[in-house]
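Hey team,

Filing this mostly as a record. A colleague (T.K.) asked me to run one chain through the structure pipeline before their review meeting, and I want the input and output archived in the tracker in case anyone asks later how it was produced. No errors, nothing strange. Just documentation.

Input sequence:
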Amino acid sequence: MTSRVVVALRVKATPERAFAAFVGEIDMWWRPNSLFRFTPRSPGTLSFEAGERGRLIETLPNGKVFEVGRIRAWEPPHRLVFGWRQATFAPDQDTEVEIRFEAVDGQTRVSVEHRGWDSVPQAHVARHGFPMTFFLTRNGEWWQSLLEAYKVRLAEGEE
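Output structure:
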């Protein structure tokens, strides 16, 4: 897995709170994006099934559940790794997301690395025909906006 996006920001929370909000409150801060849908249907609600054998799932408005990916590493409050796939991915097309939560000067640095896009061809609907550099830029911008929404959610939880 060579192609990747890396984004990070600091939040005013302990690593324990930051991890808990990431996995337990994802439905409150996640913002669907038409370029990066999991399925061609209307977006659903994301949630994690906690633990090493858990999953990231999207529950669609019609009640069907789409498995985005299996949890590959569950190390609260420091690290989370999970698979990430869209409904149109072939079995050999696999991307992976790693989230790290690091205490820094009374805050927590939350780092996201989304890797493995080289397994998805440029012509695939998930890549929209974009050359890799442009696609990774757009994907990075989206992850950055997601982290900003997550940061706002954490701040709201402190009030």
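Quick notes for T.K.: The radius of gyration is 15 Å. The helical segments are 15-24, 26-29, 132-158.
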